[in-house]
Amino acid sequence: MHIAQSNYHLAWRLRARFAGNRPPREYISRDVRHADPGWGGEVFARPIRRLEFFLPTGHVIVLAGMRRYNFFAEAVQNLSGGRTHVAACWLCGHLPDRDLVEMWRITKGKIIRQRKPFGREWGGTAIRGWKAGAVGAAVESRIREAA
Questions:
Q1: pTM for the full model?
Q2: Which 8-state DSSP code applies to residue 2?
């Protein structure tokens, strides 16, 4: 899928829906290309039921029912200096029934979906920053069409 630019108001934002009835029941980040999405914040100390990443086309990448979740931005900077920019965003879910990670990479106008063994998901090594999931819900890993 190729990603075009748009003025979609939720574009490049991450939404987490948490398990339980305690507030906040969901969290929506700022634009992850320009702001810290808050992944390391206290709000993510609660089990995540569903994680969504909004694309500028209006489509949404959805992960649900995972054992663990992760999100990170891949930033690059020219060796001769200059501004750092986001080269890719990664949305990851550790499948509940096996040691595989479902990975969505959004980069250069494209979406790449892949599965890697847990603990070797990033260039053969583990990534940090995993957040607990709320296992028991139906497992989802898909792109929801624009409304």
A1: 0.88
A2: B
